[in-house]
Design a protein that fits this description.
The protein has about 220 residues and is of the alpha/beta class. It contains nine helices and six strands. The chain has helices spanning about 5-20, 50-55, 65-75, 100-120, 130-135, 140-145, 165-170, 170-195, 210-215; strands at about 35, 45, 85, 125, 150, 155-160. Strands 1-3-2-4-6-5 form a six-stranded mixed β-sheet, with helices on both faces. A hairpin with a 5-residue loop joins strand 5 and strand 6. Helix 1 runs antiparallel to helix 4 and helix 4 crosses helix 5 (about 130-135). It starts with a helix and ends in a 7-residue tail after the last helix. The structure holds iron/sulfur cluster. Iron/sulfur cluster binds near residues 21, 22, 23, 32 and 110. Iron/sulfur cluster (SF4) binds next to helix 4.
């Protein structure tokens, strides 16, 4: 698929997503939140699900977690417009509760798998335990298994790292260590993605402000 064909296919999935009312999570959010970024990228980051700011703006990882993620990505040599970022679950669970495995499997099969089938990334980074369980199985543990490569059921090389929301809850030495862990995991993901597509540019010259690109939305 050409880049344009990929973009068109992602738009089609996005339209389908906007209409989705397939599970009860839809009742509690403004609207589903799809993905953001480049359709032809070799590198895809997958988080858990939208939080409050993500729900307000219809953009994944735009809130405080997203700001922290952007800083880490910039330090490694990546900007969000050059990769694709999305979530396993597309509707914000009430009170930001963690979605369970069944909810993740249900929504992931409907939308995340379609996004991946279009982009066909060379590398996936799973952010946090929901994405790690989705791709690697519920036996895996983020504290133990982050930074380790495995193949997803779809055949994608995947590495997990901490979700930035977890870092926001840490302080002191734990925070410093976790930030270094994320830095090294992202570095490893970038190195493998570069190996797979040496000509691809992963970092734009200027930093990207997602609030300039995404508008606050109303309840639909
Ligand atoms: S969480 Fe997923 S499956 Fe459920 S309504 Fe939202 S988009 Fe549809």
């Amino acid at each position: 698929m050409s880049e344009e064909e990929k973009r068109t296919a992602l738009q089609k999935t996005e339209e389908e997503l906007r209409r989705c009312e397939a599970c009860p999570l839809r009742r509690d959010c403004l609207a589903p939140v799809g993905g953001f970024g480049a359709a032809d990228t070799p590198l895809v980051l997958v988080g858990e699900g939208p939080g409050g700011v993500e729900d307000d703006y219809g953009c994944p990882l735009i809130g405080p977690s997203g700001q922290l993620l952007d800083k880490a990505l910039w330090a490694v040599g990546i900007t969000r417009d050059r990769i694709y970022t999305t979530n396993v679950i597309k509707c914000r669970p009430l009170n930001n509760r963690t979605p369970d495995i069944a909810e993740a499997a249900f929504c992931g099969a409907r939308f995340l798998e379609k996004e991946l089938a279009v982009i066909r990334p060379k590398i996936i980074v799973a952010l946090g335990s929901v994405a790690l369980h989705y791709f690697g199985g519920s036996d895996l543990r983020i504290l133990r298994d982050r930074g380790q490569w495995f193949l997803t059921a779809g055949g994608y090389p995947c590495i997990a790292t901490y979700h930035p929301a977890y870092l926001l809850r840490l302080t002191g030495k734990e925070l410093v260590q976790a930030k270094w862990d994320v830095f090294h995991d992202l570095q490893a993901a970038l190195a493998k993605a570069k190996e797979a597509e040496p000509a691809y540019v992963f970092k734009s010259e200027a930093k990207i402000n997602l609030f300039d690109l995404c508008k606050k939305r109303e309840r639909t």
